[in-house]
Automatic annotation (TrEMBL):
UniProt cross-references to InterPro entries, sorted A to Z: Impact, Impact_N, Impact_N_sf, Ribosomal_Su5_D2-typ_SF
This protein's name: YigZ family protein
PANTHER family: IMPACT FAMILY MEMBER YIGZ (PTHR16301:SF20), IMPACT-RELATED (PTHR16301)
A GO cellular-component term linked to this record: cytoplasm
Source species taxonomy: Bacteria, Pseudomonadati, Bacteroidota, Flavobacteriia, Flavobacteriales
Domain Impact N-terminal: 20-123
GO biological process: regulation of translational initiation
Coiled-coil region(s): none
Matching Gene3D superfamilies: Impact, N-terminal domain
Organism of provenance: Spongiivirga citrea
Length: 202
């Protein structure tokens, strides 16, 4: 089971590709929601308010992928799709790439536009730090204090990540484990008779 994905952790440096006086500025941003996408595009439009086009593509998710492309007034499939092609080529997700175009007075034709947007997107990805992350599952454990040692033994032996804990008479742990190990970890806790385990995120 694949339980890793690649993404970026911080925005790329601004990159520039020129073709016949048109300037194409490329930007890559880490995003996790469509709200993040909207915010970044709004900020870029303020920063580059004199530009002609703000074309973009984004991909969200690790298990199930969701993506969108936008040509922002350029000919159909000449901007957003070439940008998205680079997201696929670099195999990254939770990412937004925006290419801002300043028109230079000379039309580039559809082929020229595809090349320019693809190149600008590629440059922004090459300027990004790409990292690999694990796809994790989260569980909630509820148990009596007397079972604390049994629970903590598994946590320690299996390097289970504790996200939050309430250790009182009734104890509660929120834990995170790699997806590929989640079934095995769940079975271990279920084998302790008085521990209740429920899925939070998959």
């Amino acid at each position: 089971m694949k339980d890793t994905y690649k993404t970026i952790t911080k925005p790329s440096k601004e990159t520039l590709f020129k073709d016949r006086n048109s300037k194409f500025f490329g930007f890559a941003f880490p995003v996790s929601t469509e709200e993040d996408v909207k915010q970044q595009i709004t900020l870029l439009k303020k920063k580059h308010h004199a530009a002609r086009h703000w074309c973009y593509a984004y991909q969200l998710g690790a298990d199930t992928l969701k993506y969108r492309v936008n040509d922002d007034g350029e000919p159909a499939n000449s901007a957003g799709q070439p940008i998205y092609g680079q997201i696929q080529s670099f195999d990254v997700t939770n990412i937004l790439i925006v290419v801002v175009r300043y028109f230079g007075g000379v039309k580039l034709g559809v082929g020229g536009l595809i090349n320019a947007y693809r190149t600008a997107a590629k440059l922004s990805l090459e300027e990004s730090t790409i990292v690999e992350k694990t796809i994790d599952s989260q569980f909630k454990l509820v148990f009596d204090y007397k079972n604390m040692n049994k629970v903590m033994r598994i946590v320690k032996e299996k390097n289970v990540n504790i996200i939050s804990q309430q250790l009182e008479i009734n104890c509660q742990l929120i834990i995170s484990v790699r997806k590929s190990e989640s079934e095995m970890i769940k079975n271990l806790f279920e084998a302790i008779f008085e521990v209740k385990i429920t899925n939070l995120l998959t």
